[in-house]
Each structure stands twice: as C-alpha cells, then as structure tokens.
Fold this protein.
Amino acid sequence: MGRPKRIQFAGACYLVVLQGNNRQDLFLSNQDRRQFLSLLRACKDRFALKVYAYALMAGRVELLLETIQPNLSNVMQAFNTQYTKYFNAAHNAVGHVFQGRYKAWVVDKETHLSEMTRWVHLACVRDGLKDKPWRYQWSSCAAYVEAENREPLVDSEAVLRKFSGPRLKQSVRYMQYLKDRVKAGGDDALPVVGGLAIGGEAFLSRLSEKLEEPVAPRAVPVEAARRIIAEVASRHGVAEEKILGRLQWREVTAVRREAVHRVWKETRMGVSDLARLFQRTPSAISQLIRAAEEGGRPSMN
C-alpha cells in the first residue's frame, strides 16, 4: 500500500515533527542549532512561510508552520536536503540525518493555533530539560514572552493578538498561559482527529472535502523565469543565449550563477525544472545555487 498523500492547500497550517535517524541526535553542537535556524530563515524567505513556533530538541524538532502555497512537501524536501548536506559535511558523516518521513498534522488555525504554539514551547518541559520554558534557549518562546523581542523568524503577532492589550500585556498573559499549563500537568497528548488533523470533527470534515477536490497540475513559472534571465542578461550586457547555452563561457559564470539563484528563489522552481531550462545537470544547478547562497564560486558552470 502506498503512503497517504499529504494534505496541501494554500494557507494550511501544520504541526511538523522531524526526528533523528535511528533516534540519533540532530544536533551535536550549538553551531548545528544556529545553522538549522539559519536554513529555516532562508526557507521561510524562499517559500513565503509563516513560522509560528519552533523547538529544537536533541533528537527531534517541532515546527508550527503555515504555507502560503500548497507546497509543504517541496518545503520540507528542500529544507531536509540542505540541513543533511550541512550536517554530513560538518561532522564527516554520510547517509540520512532525519528518520524516514516527517510527521505533519494540519492544524485548525481558528481554534488551535495558540494551543499548538504552547505545545511546541513546552517541548523542553515534556523532555525534562526545563521547568520554565521561557528560559530554554532553542525555542521560539522568547519571541512571545519578551515584550521587545522582534525575532524576524517568528510570526508571533497572530497568536499574541488573542491575548489583547499592548505588546507588554500580551507577553505577560502569554507567559501566564504557559505557566497555567505547566502547573496543570497531566495529559500532554495532541488533540488529533482522524489521524491527520488537530482540531474538531467539523475541521476534519472540511479537510475531507479538500481531499476529494481534484488537484490542478503545478504550473512551472517559465515566463517569470525568462523575465528574470532577460533582466540579468541586460544588466550585465550578456546575451541570454550564453546564459542558457550548453557551452562553457568563463566570462558569464557569475552572471549565470546569479540568474539561476534568482530564478530558484523568486519563482520557487525546482532543481529539475531549472536544469532543463538552463541545459545543465541537476547537480550543476545545485552547485550554482549553493555557491550563490554561500557567496563563493561553483566548481562547474
């Protein structure tokens, strides 16, 4: 039996859980954690995500995300690949970093958004690391409980608005919201319905309707890509044919790298589609993107 398809639609909110392969740690140093968050910021920018909450534990990560486009699978594939490449290079390792398929539940934003940010922020309490989650360094909790915190990675406003008042009062009330749950203790089970959603039966019913809707094929944004390539070519005084051609032109290496990176970032075109457009192998395209992200030179053009 094949794996069930992900529920993906514009504006969907997900609780995502990533686990280390064979229950191994995902982070061997604080630098790993910083790099994870840096890649998450880049992924947020590239895919126009909303990141409501995160918690980095030793062997797992909990994320509360909203996708503006119906593309959670693309988002997670891109992110997991980038972090795996970093981790293996940093620690002279090979193979998988994450355990199989990530877990993802669709969250009813109208009724469970605040509750799920709290659930993520209490991960350190559930693991016995901290009894005061606002003191755990590797979660988004500070973006909620510190009145002046404006961490660009975290979209806290939608939740804090529900606690009313100015930002200071919102933060105080959110901290009390955390304290109340810690004090209550008890069952920490997720309110999952139907095995795939966090919400009520009515929400599950609406999701079932979405599953029955035909999914339109993804349109590859070639026209937008062509406009970007033309703009880059014009600005550098280079013929588009040289940027897109198979021949190696040393003088256009940096220009091609810029064009590939801009098309990848601005249109969210996949590596395979980029490879066909620029008449290169997927590995060459990946190298060009990585070189542009790192500010370095690719080994092939």
